[in-house]
Each structure stands twice: as C-alpha cells, then as structure tokens.
Amino acid sequence: MTRIVTYLFFLVLIVSCQDSGNITFEALTLASTKCKECPEVSIEIPHALGNNKLAKSINLTLQEEVISKLTFEDEINDETIQEAIESFTNGYFELKKIYPDETIGWKAKINGMVTYEDNELLTIELQSYLFTGGAHGYGSTNFLNFSKKRGKEMDDWELFEDKEGFERYAETQFRLQQDIPVNKPINSTGFMFEQDHFYLPENIGFTEKGLKLLYNQYEVASYADGPIELTLPYKDIQQFLSGNIKT
Fold this sequence. Notes:
Layout: E1 3-9, H1 14-20, E2 25-32, E3 40-48, H2 53-70, H3 81-98, E4 107-117, E5 121-131, E6 138-147, E7 152-153, H4 163-178, E8 203-206, E9 211-215, E10 228-232, H5 234-237
Parallel strand pairs: 3-4
Antiparallel strand pairs: 1-2, 2-3, 4-5, 5-6, 6-7, 8-9, 9-10
Helix pairs in contact: 2-3
C-alpha cells in the first residue's frame, strides 16, 4: 500500500508556546492510494511534539481512537494507524467477494483539531465520517480532554466538582434551546432519551465559546435530526467545574 505522510506545522513560534505553556503540534496526514478500487481513506490529526508524558498520552490516545474507528472485527488487533487502514481496505474486499454487484466503495475521513488549551487542560475534537455500505454513512464527533498536570486523558466525571448540579443546569438549558416545556417529559417533543430521562452526552469538550455538550446521531434523536449540540458559557457553569479547571 502506497501511503502519503506529510507533516505540516500549524502551531508556530516556539517562544510564544513556551511563554503560554501551550503544546506544540504538527499535523499528521495519511491517505490510502493503493489502487483505484480501494476505499478512500483520509486522516489528518494533530501530533504532539516532544517526548514527555503528556505528548505520549495525546498521540497514543489519538492513535487508539483512529484505529477503533477503522477496525470492524474484534479479532483484529491493529497496533498502528497504517495497519488499521489496511484492515479497513481488506474488509471492503472481503465483502466485495461475497456481494460483488452490490458493494459500493467505502470511505473513511477522520480529522482532528485542538479546540481549547490553557495552562491546565487541552481539548482535541475528532471528527469522523465512515461509509461502509447501506443507505448512508455515519458521522460522529469525539472530544478528548487532557490534564496537562497529570499528563493523561481525563474522564468526564473528572471535569466536574458538582456533576449532578451541572446535569440539572444542563437540562434546564437544553429544554430552553429545544423548546421543551419544563412540566413535560424530556421526550415530549420527539427526542429519544432512554427511560425518558435527561442525561449528559458521551462527548463533552472545551471550546473557546464554552463547554460543548454533543449528542451524536442516534444518541438521543433520529439520524435525520443530525447531531444535537448545546454550548454553555464558562461564566455560567464555573461553579460546577472541577477546582483544577479555571476557564
């Protein structure tokens, strides 16, 4: 498989990075060009420079996320993104052997970007779109939050000092945004929360405008509704955030 690997620096001025404590990244781009009939695979993710614990954690986490999106069979244990691309390609041709007249070309596009960084934490947003047959492809967004001090990815519960209070506040704002009456069930306007009970999404990430809550397609609504987003300004939620997080 021929591959294209290019490195483009998008955080410049090392001096300014040292002053702010920001991590320096380069963009890692991979594209599959094995053959004309092969699946189209395009990956562009940030690659943290340096040999410290945080840089290693960021790069390993991103690698694992990309591999998990491209690998469809549990018994396959890909260790690199390149191996995952090959597994994705092989999966397509295996299916094509079974359904030679029905298999439409597969596609995979994965992009990552830094959406927030301060002295304490860093957030990377990973957007992906995969088409492996059927009526349509599936797009999703994942947020990866990292603690700079601990040099590792943070679980969502670590983001909050008062998660229950935050969840109540988020529900109030969600109802306002989606025009759901306060005295009606959360699913009364067509949402599909399990057990008709509001809960936080699987993906919560820091952005320059505020903390973004993102429900991917099918998570609480139909595919046609697309992803559901709610961004809460930091000034309104600081009381709920962990004491180590100062936005």
